[in-house]
Specification:
The complex is a heterodimer of chains A (250) and B (225). With 250 residues, chain A is α/β, with parallel strands linked by helices. Helices cover 35% and strands 26% of the residues of chain A. With 225 residues, chain B is an all-alpha fold. Chain B is 80% helix and 0% strand. In chain B, α3 (75-107) runs antiparallel to α7 (178-210) and α4 (119-139) packs parallel to α7. The chains are: A alpha/beta (250), B mainly alpha (225). The interface between A and B is medium-sized, with 13 and 15 residues.
Amino acid sequence: MAKISVQQLNFFYGSKQVLADISLEIEDRKIMALIGPSGCGKSTFLRCLNRMNDTIAGARVEGKILLDGENILAPTLDVTRLRARVGMVFQRPNPFPQSVFDNVAFGPRILNTHKPKELPALVEASLRQVGLWNEVRDQLKQDALHLSLGQQQRLCIARALAVQPEALLMDEPCSALDPQATLEIEELMRTLREKYCIVIVTHNMQQAARVSDRTGFFWLGKMVEEDATAALFTRPRHTLTENYITGRAG
Amino acid sequence: MPRDLFEHELEQLQDEMLTMARAIEDALTASVAILARRDMDGARALIARDRAINQQRFDIEAQCLVVVATQQPMASDLRIIAAILFNVNELERIGDYAKGIAKINLRIPPGPLLEPLEHLPRMAEKTREMLHRALDAFVRRDVTLARAIPREDDQVDALFEQVNQALLRLIIADSSVTEQANLLMWAAHNLERAADRVTNLCERTIFTVTGEFVELDTKEPAQPE
């Protein structure tokens, strides 16, 4: 069974439909990349997966999104708990104006998942998972904004991991990073893939080709094609996909 | 058009591959003509021209790598470049077969050949013509033609067999001609192998258009060149 099963999803901003009849199976311990031109709906789709669009006035969603078989669009669902299970990493690193330690401990404290004395071990484990521990172990009490952008982004990933999620959503996580920091995040994604289901939205098609197992191509709110990444980038089935990935459309 | 420069670079790669192929077509028929008229200078000149062909192949490979690095091609663009990289290697090998025939000419002592070489020029011409149309099929992305050409390889194989039989009869009749007959068999073998490689070019045309790897001819090579 897929970790996340999206079934006939439609999404509207007021009267404007931005996602139309999207169905997609996302497997556990795999990386799914979503590509497409700006405004095609891929980020809106990503934000549906942990109901980040709920706060937008006039937003309306139809269809089903099953996480381990449970419909996360059900009105009775605990959204805070959902966002712990399905973490999110954004385009620009967005550490809180707090220390490195407090950033990672933020979620567990809010959700009250760990006792205070357990937090140092959890913070260390989370920072180790993102390969940041050795770089910041002596700066845990320092302001997180003192870190480099690449380190900040890995800190944000550690913050998402600290609440022990099952899936990670990444919305262009490298768009603000230099090439070296980008490669570090990509390497980290490959490591995290062993434990988590990851969905990444990216404008960088080479990045999608490098890191993902499967890729979905969005165009004007529809999913035109979804396939194994190696197949989609070498022999796409649809002309629209071909034109987009060869730079002749979009 | 958002990718004018890239389109231009792809066309240029293809044009240079065609230029290389034309030189090899010429070398195929010239190698047999030179052998037939026992033209030693012509053989040496053909061998020298093969060095230029080899250099063309490296130049095209280098240009392919630059285009890959700078344009990051995907999908059909990527397949075109992959096919060109493969094809120039195959073409270079076909060029080597022509060079091999020139070398055979140099190894046979001066004087007339054992028999009038009626089948060898026909083999060379048929192979040249198949090569020419195989590259047309690539340029036109014509899968139907690419599938049809390898079926004509039987004609080259039949000529090869006739050459071998004729030379064997001469050896049986007079064993003193064995060395020259053997060398002429190798000349025919080179043409037969060249035609086999045309099949590989056709397979790449199908790959370029469809993304599918197909094997059009499973015949194993008789012997190394």
